[in-house]
Design goal:
The protein has 294 residues and is an alpha+beta fold. The chain is built from six helices and eleven strands. Strands 4-9-8-7 form a four-stranded mixed beta sheet, with no helix packed on it. Strands 5-6-11-10 form a four-stranded antiparallel beta sheet, with no helix packed on it.
Length: 294
């Protein structure tokens, strides 16, 4: 049986034990003393020290990369995606997004954590799309579409836009941003049979959707001559996947959504907000101010 350590006052003693009976009979006087080498006590680094060191490293890396980027001459042309001259106000917006894009690239070079690098890479892709959108000024709407899934208990709403050659477009030419109650579809370089040789850029923005959606589970895909926008409905704990009477509410009031954490389900807040937005008369203070002004 292996030796079993017994700890007591310094120095440390270890005794060899052959079997279980020897464990009870063993005494400290019979122990075999083993000399241990001297160790130098090392104070462990605190979390604050590590944070300070990481900040210093990031600052040094950032300054070095910033100097490298600034040292390379870069010409930002004041033209749109089609080569047309941009106005000064338009070009200023392009410059702002381009500077943000450079900043993200520098931060990506300073980052070592894989998770943070993935987040920065995702932000870089979003800013690249934003920069391309800022350079695009000739947007054409897509007013005609077919939609399905608005029925009760249908989890996904599908919007079908007819776009010739959509399936042959690159992934960079089709992009859609999703929010809780909106989406923004952008399609570049579409060539219509009626106007061969001319590239059209289409954009569809829908705000104040009739009900909320899940942005993370919504997506866009292209196949053949169609672009499909998939809107994932939010599951209502009381009613499941609700029906949509229309795609967007527009200037009309949106349907009431029950809130589980509110005492009244959020009904009073909903009614007060809708009343003040659409039907309320000017308040007493405004009436008094207008009377005094007269």
């Amino acid at each position: 049986m292996q030796s079993k350590p017994r700890f007591g006052p310094r120095p440390l003693y270890f005794e060899k034990v052959e079997d279980d009976e020897d464990i009870a009979a063993a005494s400290l006087d019979e122990a075999e003393v083993i000399s241990l080498p001297d160790f130098v006590a090392v104070q462990p680094r605190s979390f604050d020290d590590e944070v300070v060191e990481a900040r210093r490293r990031v600052d040094d890396s950032y300054e070095a990369l910033r100097a490298k980027v600034d040292g390379v001459p870069a010409l930002l042309e004041a033209v749109d995606v089609d080569g047309w001259q941009l106005e000064r106000s338009q070009f200023e917006l392009v410059e702002e997004v381009d500077e943000d894009l450079k900043e993200l690239q520098i931060l990506l070079g300073c980052c070592r954590c894989p998770g943070n690098r993935l987040r920065l890479e995702g932000a870089l892709r979003e800013f690249e799309v934003s920069l391309r959108a800022k350079r695009t000024w000739a947007w054409f709407p897509l007013k005609r579409y077919e939609w399905s899934g608005y029925q009760y208990q249908e989890p996904v709403i599908t919007l079908d836009f007819h776009v010739p050659g959509a399936g042959a477009l690159s992934k960079e030419d089709i992009h859609c941003d999703f929010g809780a109650d909106h989406f923004d579809l952008k399609i570049w370089n579409v060539e219509w049979p009626e106007d061969p040789g001319v590239k059209y850029h289409h954009r569809v923005r829908k705000t104040r959707l009739m009900r909320d959606i899940e942005p993370q589970r919504s997506f866009v895909e292209a196949e053949g001559n169609h672009v499909y926008v998939k809107l994932q409905k939010v599951y209502d704990p009381r009613h499941g996947y609700c029906a949509w009477p229309d795609l967007a509410a527009g200037s009309k009031r949106k349907p009431f959504q029950y809130q589980e954490d509110a005492p009244d389900g959020g009904l009073m807040d909903f009614l007060e907000g809708e009343y003040e937005k659409y039907e309320a008369e000017p308040g007493p203070s405004r009436s008094v101010q207008s009377f005094r002004a007269s």
